[in-house]
Structure formats: C-alpha cells, structure tokens
C-alpha cells in the first residue's frame, strides 16, 4: 500500500485533518512526506496504529504531553502509564464530586438561620522520640481547628496554618465559600513562596453557626466521635489509599506497604493541587480529633477511640494521646486537636 493523503489518513485513524496538522506541529505524529510546493501531508499505513492510539487517548481526555509519553513507551510500560493517568482522573472526579456536594449544600442552605454552637478545644504538638525537629503545627480557636504536617522544613506547615488564621474570626454563612477559597489560595501561595522541595498537608475545620466546613489535603486526618461511633471523616491523599480505592490493595496490606507515606496531593512548590471541601452539620455532643500521621500510625483506631471516649477533658485527652504515641516509640512528629461541640 502506498502513502495515504491526509484526508484518507484522517478517515482511517478517526482523527480530523485539523488534529493531524496540530500533531505534526507538536511533533507527536509527523507525516512521512510533505509536498514541497503544496505543503500537502502524506502518511504511511504503518503510522495508523500510533494515530489510532492517539485518538483513543484523546477520547480519554489525556493531555497531549502525556500522550507523547505513552507513545514513546513499549506495551507494558505504556499500559502502566495509562493506568496511572486514569487513577488520577478518578481521584479528580472524586474530588470534584465532593466539591459539587459542598456547593449544593452551601447554596441550598446559604440563607438559613443557624443556631450558634460553642466549642471547647485543646491542642498539642510534640517532636516525638526519633525526629530531630518538629515539622507539625496545630492550631485551635473558637472558629478554626487545624493541623499541618510539613516536609522539607517546619516553615511550610507554619505558613499554611498562618494563612488560615483569619478564618478564626466569625465567618457568616453567606461568605463561607469565598472565605475558604481565599484562605486556601493564601496557604498555597505562602508555601510556594518558600521555594522548592518543601510542602505540607493541611486539614482544618471552620465553624460557621451550626455548621463546620472541612478543608483537607494530604494525609492528616479528622475523626468524629458521635453517639458512641468513632470514625474517620477525611480520606488520605496517598498512593496506598488510591490503591485501596482501586481494589489493588487491602487496608491491612496498606499498613506495611513501603510507600504508605507517599502523598499524591499536598500543598507544595511543584503544583497547585486543590483540597477537598465538605460542609458538615455539627451536633451538640460531637467530639472531633484532628491529627497528623504521627499519631494515627503509632496508635490503632481502638486506642484512639478509647481515649476519645473515656477522657472527658480535651486538654487531658490531647496529653494522653501524645503520651501514648510516644510510649509506642514516637517515630514521628505528632500534632493533635481535640474539640467538643456543645
């Protein structure tokens, strides 16, 4: 079979001539011959396999730079690259789903009168018994509870928390979404300005009347004790959690996975990943625990629940939690906030 005109090649590959011209300019799919007088492009039949792969990857929504990488790999490696991309898409969809839920909840109840709640809280951080410095930061106030676990230096976590502190002023329900957006933007900018190779997780609850807005990125966590039930309300942004979500790893296997601490989302200099946002109704009697991974990796959920259930005073609870983590070796920095809703 001889060379194919751009029109024939477009029909065979299911790519438009306009797309083929673009891919030629980008070096992704170059014709084997170009008529010097007319500029007409000609393609070889053996290029159809690559062209059809490009077409399918575009239908997935894969960016052209990522498609180029896939096309340069052999079969198994290319398949792994597509799998990695699709996991990122699914994670993004889950994040967008949470944002859509947040927006619907926020907008449908924006003008509802809210009965104010009070919060009793305590906060504690600790270097642990192994680390040379403490890169964890925690904050608690009447309207803001937050923890951040920095990497590459302690400044990133402190900068992120400082950026959220204006939220400790009273935030009217109608301004909550904009206030959160501004605070997250400030936090991201503050971390990026610190330079390369630094970053932080950031997890916070912001009170507005009887509701709590959750801002979360990374693998710090929020737990809730309500009516005797103790459960995690955040989802870790880690590689192993994405593997659990995909069914490739069990929760038990994740505990000993060598990459269990590898983050897939955080505030750092290399990108602008968006945090999860969620709006929650707070109820009198609720007890919240915000903590870095230095606490929950040292203590199993049963131990966390026992302290949260049995130790009534928030100040005593945070002391007990930190002391227990250190009694188990204190392998990492620890930050925790315990808050009671009344």
TrEMBL record:
Q: Which InterPro entries match?
A: DNA-bd_dom_put_sf, MerR-type_HTH_dom, MerR_fam, PPM-type-like_dom_sf, PPM-type_phosphatase-like_dom
Q: Which UniProt keywords apply?
A: DNA-binding
The protein's name? Protein phosphatase
Entry-linked Pfam families:
MerR_1, PP2C_2
Q: Identify the CDD domains for this entry.
A: HTH_BmrR (cd01107), PP2Cc (cd00143)
GO MF, one term, reads: DNA binding
**Does Metal-binding show up as a keyword for this record?**
no
Query: Which PANTHER family does the record match to this protein?
Result: MERR FAMILY REGULATORY PROTEIN, REDOX-CYCLING DRUG-SENSING TRANSCRIPTIONAL ACTIVATOR SOXR
Q: Which residues does the UniProt record annotate as the domain PPM-type phosphatase?
A: 120-341
**Residue ranges of every copy of the HTH merR-type domain listed in the record:** 3-73
Which SUPFAM superfamilies does this chain map to? PP2C-like (SSF81606), Putative DNA-binding domain (SSF46955)
| Transmembrane segment boundaries | none
Q: Which species expresses this protein natively?
A: Amycolatopsis sacchari
Coiled-coil region: none
């Amino acid at each position: 079979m001889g060379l194919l005109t751009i029109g024939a090649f477009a029909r065979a590959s299911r790519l438009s001539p306009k797309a083929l011209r673009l891919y030629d300019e980008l070096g992704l799919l170059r014709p084997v011959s170009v008529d010097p007088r007319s500029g007409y492009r000609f393609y070889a039949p053996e290029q159809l396999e690559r062209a059809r792969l490009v077409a399918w990857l575009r239908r997935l929504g894969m960016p052209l730079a990522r498609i180029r990488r896939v096309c340069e790999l052999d079969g198994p490696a290319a398949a792994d690259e597509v799998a990695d991309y699709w996991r990122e898409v699914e994670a993004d969809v889950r994040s967008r789903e949470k944002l859509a839920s947040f927006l619907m909840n926020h907008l449908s109840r924006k003008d509802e009168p809210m009965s104010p709640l009070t919060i009793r809280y305590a906060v504690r951080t600790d270097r642990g018994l192994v680390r040379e410095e403490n890169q964890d930061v925690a904050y608690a106030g009447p309207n803001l509870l937050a923890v951040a676990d920095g990497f590459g230096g302690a400044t990133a976590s402190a900068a992120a928390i400082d950026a959220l502190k204006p939220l400790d002023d009273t935030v009217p329900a109608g301004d909550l979404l904009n206030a959160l957006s501004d605070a997250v933007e400030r936090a991201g900018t503050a971390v990026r300005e610190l330079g390369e190779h630094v970053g932080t997780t950031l997890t916070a609850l912001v009170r507005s009347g009887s509701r709590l807005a959750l801002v979360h990125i990374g693998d710090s966590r929020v737990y809730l004790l309500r009516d005797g039930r103790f459960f995690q309300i955040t989802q870790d942004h880690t590689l192993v959690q994405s593997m659990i979500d995909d069914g490739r790893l069990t929760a038990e296997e994740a505990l000993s996975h060598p990459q269990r601490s590898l983050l897939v989302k955080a505030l750092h200099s290399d990108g602008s990943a968006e945090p999860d946002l969620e709006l929650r109704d707070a109820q009198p009697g609720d007890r919240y625990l915000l903590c870095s991974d230095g606490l929950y990796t040292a203590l199993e959920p049963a131990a966390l629940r026992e302290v949260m259930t049995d130790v009534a005073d928030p100040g005593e609870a945070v002391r007990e939690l930190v002391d227990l983590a250190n009694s188990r070796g204190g392998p990492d920095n620890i930050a925790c906030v315990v808050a009671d809703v009344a």
